[in-house]
Amino acid sequence: MMRKKYLSLLGLILILTAFSAFQFEVNGQSRRDQNRAKKIAGEGDTLFNRKDYRSAINKYAEAITIYPNFPEAHFWKGYAHYYLNEYDSAVN
Asked: Which of 9, 51, 53, 79 lies deepest, with the highest CB count within 10 Å?
């Protein structure tokens, strides 16, 4: 009886481990896509610091296209829109 419980618990742990290993492949987003989006957003950061807000918006939009759940890119894109007095776009 105890052996059956331990085997069931071990099986459950293995299944949960397998699901957590594939966590980074959610919605077709691989770690490679995330890194590529971060690199592009870094280029956008450089442009933002140079006060080239229009080009920065384009870089952030490209990063968001690659990795839609990238909060920093959304934030800085909105901030660049704010500096260009595009308030409706900044809110979105």
From this structure: 53
Is 15 exposed, middle or buried, given 0-12, 13-18 or 19+ CB atoms closer than 10 A?
exposed
Q: Select from 39, 49, 50 the least CA-distant residue to 73.
A: 39
Q: Could you tell me if 34 and 67 are in contact, meaning their C-beta atoms sit under 8 angstroms apart?
A: yes
Does the structure show a pLDDT above 70 at 24? no
Query: How far apart, in Å, are the Cα atoms of 57 and each of 21, 36, 39, 41, 52?
Result: 34, 17, 14, 10, 9
Distance CA 33, CA 51 (A): 27
Nearest alpha-carbon partner for 45 in 69, 18, 70: 70
pTM exceeding the 0.90 threshold for the entire prediction: no
**pLDDT, tens only, 74-83:** 999 999 999 9
DSSP-derived letter for residue 1 is -
